[in-house]
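Justification of resources, computational component.

The compute hours requested in this renewal are based largely on the per-chain cost of generating structure records like the one below. Each record pairs the submitted sequence with a full structure-token output. That output is archived, and it is also reused by downstream analysis tasks.
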Amino acid sequence: MLVKTLEILNPPVISDKDNLTIAFKKINERGIGRIIIANPKVEGILSTRDLLSIFLSFCTNGCTQGNLYKLSTVEASQYMTSPVTVITENADTLEAITLMVTRNFGSLVVINEQGIPSGIITERELLLEFQDLDPLFPVYHFMTKKVSTIDQHTDLTTATKQMLRRGFRRLPVVDEDKNVLGIITAADSIKSAAKSVTKLDPDIFFAKTVKDIMRTPLVVIEEDRSINEAASMMIEKSIGSLVILDDAGKIKGIITERDLLIALHYQIHLSYVGKLKT
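The structure output for this chain reads:
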């Protein structure tokens, strides 16, 4: 399958002269969570993680309208990641999967023959490849068993810092008895941060707790279900993770889009090696 059959067309793109306010306004477009800086060829990229880190760096000891105004006037190109690893529209999706797994990327910018960005491909689009694969592996083979959680009353700033520090994109939310209530994601944090920046109102972000923005209800899956089913559920519900519970209803594991992409990479290469041996 070719990349152009799965790419998201017309992704959020800004120029190298646009300021961070524009980046924050566009970051939530279509749920992609990445901003391409191009002029017209790709010059850099800003991710949700990048923008959250920038946002918090301007508000290290409390946050004022002045802090947010200062942030909003900075050119996005000063903080972009560059150079950017790209992939062509006519590349095979296996190349995209391999690049994303081996380089630990959550997405790839797709370019046309002129080198201009035409789209973006993320982990979620690539999970559609499971539709053509036999269900060989259960969820428990690839789920994370040591799950970090966060208390519902934790402030949003602390929760966001925890995700950034530990490289997570999501944290299940629990109550005092460790019962799972919902989940908070980096995408949830960036929505509040973007509103805070565009409205120059620190309280939109800094006055919030996890409970205020967490997503409910939590979507769960049994550990003996196939990873193919897990991929279908994530695609259908437009979510990035599924939680596995034990018999007492406590959290036992979590499987994410990232885990499934790794599983997809493994299964495709397993099939390829098998064909070589025969």
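The first strand starts at residue 8 and ends at 9. The mean pLDDT is 94.
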